[in-house]
Amino acid sequence: MDKANYLDFVLEIIRRRDNQKGFEVLPRRWVAERAFCRMIRWRRLVRDYKRRMDLSTALIYVAMGSLLIVVMRTHDFLNRL
């Protein structure tokens, strides 16, 4: 959290209302869930072996970097530069 404060991130926790009945779409929740679902495709990230934290961190960076490249390629982002 200290690093998030340093980088001026705003953290918003969205909770279900107590009087709510049934299903209601929560705003922007799908963004985080989509990122986690895409990372699950990387077999090594499914299990946390906790042998070397630096290796786990590096694999997360590689997975997210490759996902960013795929998103940029599919949205034709590179041709706009």
Descriptive report:
The mean pLDDT is about 75. This protein has helices at about 1-5, 30-40, 45, 55-75. The chain has four helices and no strands. It is mainly α and about 80 residues long. It has a domain at about 55-80. The longest helix is centred in the last third of the chain and has 22 residues, at about 55-75. Pfam families: DDE_Tnp_1. This is Transposase IS4-like domain-containing protein. One of its GO terms (molecular function) is DNA binding. Keywords: Membrane, Transmembrane, Transmembrane helix.
Contiguous low-pLDDT stretches (5 residues minimum) are none
Number of helices: 4
Q: Could you give the distance between the termini?
A: 34 Å
Taken from the alpha-carbon principal axes, the silhouette is: extended
Share of helical residues: 40-55%
Structural class: mainly alpha
Percentage of residues in DSSP E strands: under 5%
What string, H for helix and E for strand, traces the elements in order?
HHHH
Q: How many strand segments? A: 0
Compute the CA-based radius of gyration: 17 Å
Overall mean pLDDT score? Answer: 75
The largest sheet is: none
GO molecular function: DNA binding; transposase activity
Protein name: Transposase IS4-like domain-containing protein
Keywords: Membrane, Transmembrane, Transmembrane helix
Organism: Methylocystis echinoides
